[in-house]
Amino acid sequence: MERIAIEGGHKLQGSVRVHGAKNAALPILAASVMAHGESIIEDVPNLQDIRVMVTILRHLGAKVHHEGSRLRVDATTLTHTEVPENLMRQMRSSIFLMGPILARCGQVRISLPGGCTIGSRPIDLHLKGLQALGARIEEKHGYILCTANRLRGANIYLDLPSVGATENLIMAAVFADGVTTIHNAAREPEIIDLANYLNTMGARVHGAGEDKVVIEGVHRLRGAEYKVIPDRIVTGTLLLAAAITQGEIELTNVQPDHLGAVISKLQETGVEVRVESNRLHVRTNARPKRIERIQTAYYPGFPTDLQSPFMAFLSVADGTSVVTESIFEGRYQHVSELMRMGAKIKVDMRTAFIEGVPELTGAHVEATDLRAGAALILAGLAANGKTFIEKVHHIDRGYEKVEEVFGSLGAKIWRERSDSTS
Ligand SMILES: CC(=O)N[C@H]1[C@@H](OP(=O)(O)OP(=O)(O)OC[C@H]2O[C@@H](n3ccc(=O)[nH]c3=O)[C@H](O)[C@@H]2O)O[C@H](CO)[C@@H](O)[C@@H]1O
Ligand SMILES: C=C(OP(=O)(O)O)C(=O)O
C-alpha cells in the first residue's frame, strides 16, 4: 500500500497546465462505443477511472490505443453487451455504458456501479428515463437487464437535474426514433462537452447546457476527433492549494467561466484571482477571511466536488465560516480527518460550521473518498510538520500524477510505502 507524505509550510509558486476533465472524458469514452469507425480523443487524463473505462471498452470488443493523453477508440465491432460486475463496481461512471450499449445493440446487462461513498447515489432516474424511451428493465440477482428492439423518442421529466442521468439519456436517445426532450436536465459543462462530441460524430443534440435538451434520433454515428475540456475541479483544487499556502501560481489550459461560483467565493476570502481567456493567476499573502455561507448546488452553483477542498481552506480562515452540502448526504467524511490536523469543525445535519484556526498541524490521516483526499492534501501543504495520507487510490481516481504536479509548484510532497517509518 502507498501513502502520500507532505512536509507542510512551503508556498506554491510557478505555472502548471491543467489536465482534461475526468468527468467529461468518462461519458465521452462511453459514447465512443456508439460509433462505427475510429474516434481520436485528445487530452484524456491518465487516471484510474479512465483505465477502468478502457478495460471495459476492450471487454466489449472495442480496440483502444493510448498515445500519451490521446486515445484512439474503434468500436466498429462490439462483441459483448454485458459489463462484468467486478468492473461495474470499480467506479460510478461504469453506469455511463448503459445508455450507449442499449442504443447501439438493443440490450445491455450491468450491475449497480461503484464510486465514491459520498451518499446513497441511486440510479432510479437513469432507469425511469430509459423506460420512458421504451426500454424493458428487469432487475434480478443484482443484475439489471435493459432491452429494447427500438427506442422511441419521448418527453422525459427528471425529478432532479442529475448529471449522470442527463448524460445517459442523451446517449440513449441518439438512436431513438423521433425526438426526445429531457426537461429539468443538468447543465454542467461536461454535458455540453458530451453533446459536442456526439454532434461531431453525427448526432443531433440541441440545448446541452440548458435545462431542456432536445435530441433528434439518427441512425448511425461515425468516429470523430475531439478534445476534452479542462478539468474544472482540478483547476479549483489548484487555486485553493495556492491560496492555502499563501502562494502565487498561474494555471494554463483552464476555462474560467466554468468556475464562476468558486472564483467569486475565493475572492470573498480576500484572494486575488486574475482571469484571462484560458489562464488563471491566483495570489495571496494573508490568512483568508471567513465566508458567511457556501451552499453546494447544481451548476452553475458551487460544485459539491470542491466542497471538501474549500472546507480545508476555510479551516485556517480568520473567523467562522458556514458550508452546506446540498447534493450528497455523505460528503462530510473529510471533517473528522481535518480535525485530526487541528481543524475546528462542527456538523449539524447538512451544515458545517468551520471555526478557523491560525495553523493546522501535520498528522496521519485517511483519504475516505476522492475529494476528501484532495482536501487533506491542501491541509497538509499548509500544516506545520508532516502529514501522511493513506488510501491514495481514491486521489488517483481524479488527480493525474498528483505529487509531481504539486512538486513542480514547490511543494514538498512524495509517495512512499505505507509501512515506511514516519
Ligand atoms: C462522473 C461524474 O460526472 N461524476 C459527477 C456527477 O455524479 P453523478 O452523475 O453521480 O451525480 P448526479 O448529478 O446524478 O447526482 C445528484 C443527486 O441526484 C441524486 N440522484 C442521481 C441519479 C438518480 O438516478 N437518482 C438520484 O436520486 C444523487 O443521489 C445526488 O443526490 O455529478 C456530481 C454532482 O455534480 C458530481 O459530484 C460527480 O463528480
Ligand atoms: C464524486 C466524484 O466522482 P464519481 O462520480 O466518479 O464518484 C468526483 O469526481 O468528485
UniProtKB/TrEMBL annotation:
Xref: InterPro entries: Enolpyruvate_Tfrase_dom, Enolpyruvate_Tfrase_sf, MurA_subfamily, RNA3'P_cycl/enolpyr_Trfase_a/b, UDP_GlcNAc_COvinyl_MurA
SUPFAM superfamilies: EPT/RTPC-like
A GO-annotated cellular component: cytoplasm
GO BP of this protein: cell division; cell wall organization; peptidoglycan biosynthetic process; regulation of cell shape; UDP-N-acetylgalactosamine biosynthetic process
Chain sites annotated for binding phosphoenolpyruvate: 22-23
Domain Enolpyruvate transferase: start-end pairs: 7-405
Active-site residues, as the UniProt record annotates them: 116 (proton donor)
Catalytic activity: phosphoenolpyruvate + UDP-N-acetyl-alpha-D-glucosamine = UDP-N-acetyl-3-O-(1-carboxyvinyl)-alpha-D-glucosamine + phosphate
2-(S-cysteinyl)pyruvic acid O-phosphothioketal modified-residue sites: 116
Known EC number: 2.5.1.7
GO molecular function, one term: UDP-N-acetylglucosamine 1-carboxyvinyltransferase activity
One Pfam family, short name: EPSP_synthase
Keywords linked to the UniProt accession: Cell cycle, Cell division, Cell shape, Cell wall biogenesis/degradation, Cytoplasm, Peptidoglycan synthesis, Pyruvate, Transferase
Localisation: Cytoplasm
Pathway the protein acts in: Cell wall biogenesis; peptidoglycan biosynthesis
Binding positions for UDP-N-acetyl-alpha-D-glucosamine per the UniProt entry: 92, 121-125, 305, 327
Family: Belongs to the EPSP synthase family. MurA subfamily.
Purpose of the protein: Cell wall formation. Adds enolpyruvyl to UDP-N-acetylglucosamine.
Protein name in the entry: UDP-N-acetylglucosamine 1-carboxyvinyltransferase
Classification of source organism: Bacteria, Bacillati, Bacillota, Bacilli, Bacillales
